[in-house]
Design goal:
It is built from 3 helices and 85 strands. It has 1063 residues and is mainly β. Strand 53 and strand 54 form a beta hairpin. The protein is flat and about 95 Å long.
């Protein structure tokens, strides 16, 4: 399974790869995937990677076609290969170069290979003799975007060619073969308004499905379905399917449905009428590039731009989303009232029974659901059942499924219905302070009865909210924010009573009641209120009435309230209607809640959370849909069109099934969602380009990757073992793309991290390594806390009083391009290069946890790409003008210190007049990459790579007395790479470089300042599969080193040879 490149005494091995999965195939019990130039084979039953091999080292794989026994064909670019596989091993039988771009390949009955190219040509290849038999061209000589073969022999072979002229051309290479003339066009499928990306034909149904740039899928009916002569066939357009919001890459026509994938990360399932059955969002919002189906095994496999591979059940994909079966409630069970009766509140018990409170004050129980849908079934994708009451609905005579538990006019019009976390007890509270508590009896497994165990008047007035803290304790909120903690105690006669433990008081607010509460170890109480604040109370100690909170986190969830609180693995989580999931840690001294990271959900209304097999499921509402989000897979599991969050609803998780009950239009609905709709063969990474990356390799078992990308997220992941990447957590906090990440080590297990990018936004984070990384637990062993966020718009100008300022408003499109931390006298400064050409310096105050802009300097007339610290108070900036400028920041940092820290103060004119000490023209254009290496005292080596493809290594001497920079030596290679150089890093006597040309070069250097000698020699080369490379990172691993290349994905390369000593 090793992938290696040898060059001299260096041996480079691929350790880990994550990039777009461009092709997939299902053969026997294995999934074959193409990622870059590599083939990987996974066992479907065990989900294990069993074999991998590098097929093409200079191009990507674009297609896989099944051959005879133990053979399959792969192609990409202008290359095609025959692969033999047996006993979890791979072998390249033969490899052939074609003169044109290959779009498709087909294994024929005579074991020749038909190859379709981008210029509408079909080549017949005898792979055993390794020779071209013939080459046939169509009379329509045009460039193709896609091509597909139909048929298993040369005489039956038909080509479906998708052109740039918005049509599909059907022709046969066996027509006019003997005459030597170009083959005629048999049919033209016209109707798309964009280029054709794919075409697929299913002989069983006689359907052709095409996809296009116009975001549509079209279905065409062939009559007869099995034409012997395609020129006599009749082809008609039968349906056009719109459901994707971006380009549609591929579609697969099956016996009962059509499945399409696209750029919008959506997989859509359509019936034969062209109606949308199901839609799933996969691969973390990235493009879905590949799909493979097996109707025999009932499996569907997808591959995305994030590098992940998902396996889905085909049966689940075919299930209808919304079959509604009305089941009316029997009228004989309810006393007739003068007003119309309908359900107002609903909860669901552990056994799947529902408790419903009606408008009339009846509390009823529904014991089973009639029809073909079972609430406890694990079958399903999404299923709905409607239970209707009142209105024009007729009532059923069946009384077996409905039971009246209690009736009182106290609970008419207004009542609260809350269920405990164990789903065995529920409480009902009235407008006059009356509380009823019911319990599901577990004494008999055959018949479980609902018994009333408490009937108690808890308050003199309205109870605004009731929260279950545990199976034996509840919290009530009365008028003026009075909170009462009650304990449910069992008496000697077997009955129960409520005992008041302690009272608390909520801080004043316009809407003064609790919306969620959490009791931790009977020691402290955490409450979330209607205005978005979280309060911490002490339960132990002296019993004081109306005790005030020890700590208040004001409006952490905005103004719409805290919807849920949960504790999991010693961390506290809160969610609210601001669309965020927040994580906290309880600190004993002082007794406070420490805010950690914030995760922004792709929907605004986050209502609840639960843990299922160590995966945190986030439940909420996106517009009119109820949604379930998985933190582990970073995607939506299901959507239910329930009408929105303003309704009574409840849920229960049983195994891999989530049952959701809700009220809509005075009717009761039940939906079932399969939580294991898909399994993951290979975990993913960023769905878009990775712009920046840092490696933590000290005090950890496995390297920790901290990356930021175009998807606006920061990911912390472990490169655990070969080809296994485990994401610890994802931070959704930035408003725009992330361009720079830098870390500063505070002490052995704590780091200060700064991240910045678009919208001129910079953030500070604290990373704590709590224990050894690399365990299998889902929650991170690295603790992350967001400390501060700063935007230039906020500090340079106060938006609400812009008329008071004479300085122009900072361009909101300004981006931070590079960051570098500076430590001086215990103070932390951040030097930043910006896209508007300004070199900015910010002071970070660790006490107030905020930034202050202390300097803004304009020297470069172009975008500053890189910033670095040469020494304690000397910095270097490099821009798109090819100039490297050295700066002395000593005067600036001495003038500004945390002692006179003021937030959002204006920059004085003297903080804008700083000029560089020296500047040097090193490249013709932009300096994309650099690295520094310290030589003797006051001597440094600066390696730079630019858009001009030149690699330059320059030796400088720092003249501390005159505060100047002296140029000593320089080595230059004008065409070190064939494209712009985007990554450089020193490691011992080696320099590693990479470029957009997807080459990684290892250079050995030698420098003698005294002898004025600088020698550089290329000693190794490696071809990476990562496209659009943005940079690289290098770290030592024993006597060797490792390299991580990042761009559209990441690739980690190990160098395993022993270094020679520098002579």
């Amino acid at each position: 399974m090793d992938v290696c490149t040898r060059h001299g005494n260096l041996e480079l091995h691929q350790h880990l790869l994550r990039t777009a999965v461009t092709c997939l195939g299902i053969i026997d019990n294995h999934v074959i995937s193409g990622m870059g130039g590599f083939i990987r084979i996974f066992n479907i039953l065990s989900s294990r990677l069993v074999a991998q091999m590098c097929v093409f080292n200079d191009c990507k794989l674009h297609g896989i076609s099944k051959g005879s026994v133990n053979y399959f064909v792969v192609f990409g670019g202008r290359k095609i290969a025959i692969i033999y596989y047996s006993l979890e091993s791979l072998k390249i039988e033969t490899l052939w170069h074609v003169d044109d771009w290959i779009l498709c390949a087909c294994w024929l009955e005579d074991e020749n290979i038909a190859i379709g190219t981008a210029h509408n040509t079909v080549i017949l290849w005898n792979w055993r003799a390794q020779e071209k038999v013939k080459s046939i061209i169509c009379e329509e000589r045009c460039i193709l975007y896609s091509s597909t073969f139909v048929g298993s022999s040369w005489d039956q072979l038909v080509v479906f060619a998708g052109t740039v002229f918005q049509e599909v051309i059907i022709w046969s290479p066996s027509d006019n073969e003997t005459s030597g003339l170009d083959c005629p066009v048999l049919h033209r499928l016209q109707g798309h308004k964009g280029v054709i990306f794919s075409s697929h034909y299913n002989p069983a149904t006689g359907r052709i499905h095409t996809t296009s740039d116009d975001r549509s899928v079209k279905g065409w009916q062939v009559r007869p379905a099995h034409p012997r002569k395609w020129q006599l066939a009749e082809i008609n357009l039968v349906n056009t399917m719109y459901g994707h919001t971006a380009r549609v890459w591929k579609s697969v026509g099956l016996g009962k449905c059509t499945i399409s994938i696209g750029e919008d990360s959506q997989m859509c399932v359509w019936n034969l009428k062209g109606e949308l059955l199901n839609r799933w969002s996969l691969h973390q919002g990235g493009s879905i590039w590949s799909i493979a189906c097996s109707e025999e095994k009932r499996l569907l496999v997808t591959g995305g731009s994030d590098g992940s591979i998902s396996v889905l059940s085909l049966d689940h994909c075919l299930k209808d989303v919304n079959p509604v079966l009305p089941i009316p409630i029997n009228a004989n069970l309810i006393e007739q009232t003068s007003q119309q009766n309908y359900p107002r509140r609903v909860v669901i018990l552990r056994n799947g029974h529902m408790i419903i409170v009606l408008q009339s004050g009846h509390i009823i129980q529904c014991s089973e659901i009639q029809g073909n849908i079972s609430l406890n079934s694990n079958k399903g994708a999404l299923e709905n059942v409607a239970l209707c009451l009142g209105g024009d609905h007729s009532y059923s005579s069946d009384t077996s499924m409905w039971t009246v538990l209690y009736f009182s006019p106290k609970f008419a019009n207004y009542c609260l219905l809350e269920i405990s976390a164990c789903k065995l007890r529920f409480a009902v509270a009235s407008l006059d302070g009356h509380i009823l508590i019911f319990e599901e009896s577990t004494s008999s497994k055959i018949s479980r009865k609902i018994e009333k165990i408490v009937d108690f008047s808890a308050a003199e007035g309205k109870i605004f909210s009731l929260q279950w803290l545990s199976p034996n304790s509840i919290l009530t909120c009365e008028v003026l924010g009075k909170l009462c903690l009650w304990s449910l105690q069992a008496l000697e006669d077997g009955s129960y009573s409520l005992k008041k433990i302690k009272t608390f008081i909520l801080p004043y607010s316009k809407e003064r009641w609790v919306t969620s509460a959490l009791l931790i170890d009977n020691y402290y109480l955490i409450c979330g209120d209607r205005v978005g604040s979280i309060h911490l109370y002490s339960v132990q100690g002296e019993i004081n009435d109306n005790e005030k909170p020890n700590q208040t986190l004001s409006k952490v969830h905005g103004r719409f309230g805290v919807s849920f609180l949960m504790v999991h693995q010693n961390y506290i989580f809160s969610c609210g209607r601001d669309g965020t999931l927040r994580q906290y840690q309880y600190v004993d001294l002082p007794k406070t809640l420490k805010q950690l990271c914030v995760t922004r959900m792709p929907f605004d209304w986050v209502s609840s959370c639960c843990v299922n097999e160590n995966d945190i499921l986030v439940l909420g509402f996106c517009e009119k849909n109820f949604v379930v989000w998985t933190q582990e897979q970073q995607r939506l599991l299901c959507e239910v069109p329930c009408g929105g969050g303003h309704r009574s609803w409840d849920y229960i998780v049983e195994g891999n099934c989530l049952n959701f009950v809700y009220i809509k239009q005075k009717c009761l609905f039940v939906a079932s969602c399969d939580l294991k709709l898909s399994s993951v063969l290979q975990t993913g990474f960023h769905p878009k380009e990775v712009n920046c990356l840092q490696i933590l390799h000290k005090n950890v078992k496995f390297p920790v990757l901290i990356s930021g990308g175009e998807d606006t997220t920061i990911r912390v992941a472990l490169a655990c073992s070969r080809n296994y990447l485990h994401t610890l957590f994802v931070l959704h906090s930035h408003l725009s793309s992330i361009r720079a990440i830098t870390c500063y080590e505070l002490h052995e297990n704590k780091l200060l991290m700064f991240s910045a990018g678009g919208r001129a936004q910079i953030k500070a984070w604290e990373l704590t390594l709590e224990s050894e990384c690399g365990t299998s637990e889902i929650l991170p062993k690295i603790l992350c806390q967001e400390l501060s966020s700063h935007m230039l718009m906020n500090s340079d100008n106060k938006q609400h009083k812009s008329w008071k300022h004479s300085q122009p408003t900072v361009d909101p499109e300004t981006r931070y391009m590079s960051l570098c931390p500076i430590l001086y006298n215990g103070n932390i400064y951040v030097a930043a290069g910006c896209s508007d050409g300004y070199f900015r310096v910010l002071l970070y105050c660790s006490v107030q946890q905020c930034f202050q802009l202390v300097g803004s300097f304009k020297f470069h007339q172009r975008c500053i790409l890189n910033v670095a610290c040469v020494s304690a108070l000397n910095a270097i900036t490099m821009a798109t003008d090819g100039i490297a400028a050295f700066w002395d920041l000593s005067v600036l940092v001495e003038r500004h210190s945390p002692g006179n820290f003021k937030v959002d103060t204006e920059i004085s004119s003297e903080d804008c007049d700083l000029k560089p000490l020296s500047d040097f023209k090193l490249h013709q254009s932009g300096i994309n990459s650099f690295d520094l290496f310290s030589l003797e005292i006051d001597h440094i080596l600066l390696a730079t790579g630019g858009d001009d493809t030149a690699l330059v290594i320059t030796a400088f001497r720092m003249n501390n007395k005159r505060k100047g920079i002296v140029h000593i030596l320089q080595w230059r290679m004008e065409s070190a790479h064939v494209a712009q150089i985007t990554g450089l890093a020193f490691v011992d006597q080696y320099l590693i470089s990479t470029s957009v040309d997807q080459k990684v070069f290892v250079w050995k250097w030698f420098c003698s300042v005294n002898r004025r000698l600088l020698l550089v020699t290329k000693v190794a080369a490696y071809c990476t599969t990562i496209a659009d490379i943005h940079g690289l990172k290098v770290w030592p691993t024993g006597n060797s080193f490792s390299v991580c290349v990042y761009g559209k994905g990441i690739e980690i390369i190990h160098e395993n040879s022993v270094h020679e000593d520098v002579k």
